[in-house]
Amino acid sequence: MGKLLAIDGLNIVRRVYEASPEPDSADKADIALRHALSSFRKLLNAHGPTHVLAAFDHGGPTWRHALYPRYREQRAPMPSFLRDALPGFHAKLAGEGLHVLVLPDVEADDVIGTGVLRWLAEGRGEAIVASTDKDLHGLIAHGALVWDHFKGEWHDDAWVRKKFGVAPELLADLLALMGDVTDGVPGVSKVGMKTAAKLLNAYGNLDAVMAGAGILKTPVGERLRAEREVLYLSRQLVQLKTDVRLGVTWNMLAFETF
């Protein structure tokens, strides 16, 4: 059986870059990318994958922006020095034997979600996602495991339940209810993680929560009814797109350890 390692490229690069307190500069970008390359090598050596899907955000508007123009409007843009250095970094990854995927109109999360679900559906073996992105933890419900490279720990079903209070299959519903300030996902006003988890565990899923909202004689019930459209918009924004045309074959993503 095979082993797919899906790497959220910018998740590693940005965290390494931002860990340095130095002001933005070409030197800072160069140093960060050298450390990021080392992180990629450690991931490959530690997990010994047969296939690697290394995904990076393309940059610019995506289908989520078309759906909601304010998506990620508060997020700071990538430092220009780092952005300009990325093509060279991608070339170095190619030199390591990786096929880097950078697709327009979608996010790296969508690319990873599509690849991982396809791999698992075809019964090709285990799938590991190297990322700290909470949205990708929903893939655990389908049999994937998430590896936090920075903490050196596995995230599985039990981890998600302890961290978020719901099962992995309900994670997108939870994020839709509580919103995500980082990505500009509105959610329902004054609904935090604990309230969202309580609702989902009581009713079963988002649709069931909304079906019961009509009889909830509470401020939360009132907000759910008043913000129904915003809630379902939020659900679309946090849901991974899993039908991306990747433009690669498994043979193209095959990886040999030298």
From TrEMBL:
Keywords: DNA-binding, Exonuclease, Hydrolase, Nuclease. This is 5'-3' exonuclease. The keyword Nuclease applies. It holds the Pfam family 5_3_exonuc. The keyword Metal-binding does not apply. Residues 2-256 form the 5'-3' exonuclease domain. GO terms for molecular function: exonuclease activity. Gene3D superfamilies: 5' to 3' exonuclease, C-terminal subdomain, 5'-nuclease. PANTHER family: 5'-3' EXONUCLEASE FAMILY PROTEIN, FLAP ENDONUCLEASE XNI.
